[in-house]
Amino acid sequence: MHYPQDTQVMPALAAAHLLRASNARLVTGREVTAVPRGPGGAVRGVRTDRGDIHALAVVNAAGTWGGEIAVRAGVSLPVLPRRGFVLVTEPLPPRIRHKVYAADYVGDVASDSAALQTSPVVEGTPAGPVLIGASRERVGFDRSLSLPALRALAAGATDLFPFLAEVRALRTYVGFRPYLPDHLPAIGPDPRAPGLLHACGHEGAGIGLATGTGRLIAQALTGQVPDLDLGAFRPDRFTEEAE
Ligand SMILES: Cc1cc2nc3c(=O)[nH]c(=O)nc-3n(C[C@H](O)[C@H](O)[C@H](O)COP(=O)(O)OP(=O)(O)OC[C@H]3O[C@@H](n4cnc5c(N)ncnc54)[C@H](O)[C@@H]3O)c2cc1C
After folding, report:
1. Whole-structure pTM value
2. Which of 101, 120, 151, 168 could covalently link to 156 via disulfide, CB atoms 3.0 to 4.6 Å apart?
């Protein structure tokens, strides 16, 4: 599968640019341990392991840990981890000029199976290494290396680009895609806790969807009508199902 309109972004660099453009103050190395609520139930900021930060609104953008932050605010949000590995090759002269997916990728993304799934996605980078993704498994927060997953990734990539059989893989990395049971993110205000907003659960598309989500959250925070109806992303939609 070739998507001619596909683009590429280095997430850490994109985050640094967005941060600079926003003029926001970034405080790192603090864990949010609680989200205190006032008498009417409204959030009052966050409690961290290094003191309280008072605020009229709190945005839960804790990715795979979004469910924990929700619990710390006294609400439930069933965010779960979907493990994925990526193989990174040694730097190569440019031979893979755009991202190539095997067509079964789309089916794997939508699948509810807990078993290992690997549909190859191969992309070159400006620095030379080729990125080979991506596996999907529901194994909780297990970070241990899985040789079956890595073998399947390598085999899928060499099927698409036979010359990769001669190329060395230098490293691999693992991550956990944050997903909700219906595979849609939670975006917007939480009616159960005034002042609390959620922006998490974007599964395997959270980098691409980051700026769009940020815009929707900014609109919700400033009382504007969001560009997109947030109904499908309501953070309390799973509470209703359980009742
Ligand atoms: C193998 C793999 C391939 C992927 N490929 C793509 C892709 O091609 N395109 C794409 O768009 N997406 C892709 N994704 C998905 C993407 O990585 C995620 O959707 C995205 O990173 C989620 O971003 P986030 O900001 O919601 O969460 P994160 O990036 O996980 O950020 C959450 C932050 O919250 C912090 N945090 C958690 N708990 C607390 C606490 N109690 N107190 C303070 N801070 C806390 C964490 O430290 C972390 O910094 C991929 C994921 C994997 C695993």
Report:
1. 0.93
2. 120
Pairing mode of beta strands 186-189, 117-124: unpaired
Q: What pLDDT score was predicted for residue 239?
A: 83
- pLDDT, average across residues 42-70: 98
Query: Could you tell me if the CB of 201 is within 6 A of ligand 1?
Result: no
Pick the residue whose CA is nearest to atom 4 on ligand 1: 204
Domain boundary among 178, 205, 220: 178
Q: How confident is the model at residue 51 (pLDDT cuts 50, 70, 90)?
A: very high
My answer on whether 94 and 157 are in the same domain is yes
List the residue whose alpha carbon is closest to atom 41 of ligand 1: 32
Does residue 7 belong to any structural domain of this protein?
Answer: no
Q: Whose CA is nearest to atom 15 of ligand 1?
A: 204
By CB neighbour count within 10 A (0-12 exposed, 13-18 middle, 19+ buried), where does 222 fall?
exposed
- Is residue 31 lining ligand 1, measured as CB closer than 6 Å? yes
CATH label of the domain that carries residue 208:
3.50.50.60
Give pLDDT, residue 240: 62
Q: What are 170's two structure tokens? A: 């230098």
Task: Let me know: does 85 contact 173? Beta carbons within 8 Å.
Answer: yes
The whole-angstrom separation of Cα 99 and Cα 155 is 17
Query: Which residues span the domain enclosing 146?
Result: 80-178
**Does the beta carbon of 62 sit less than 6 angstroms from any atom of ligand 1?**
yes
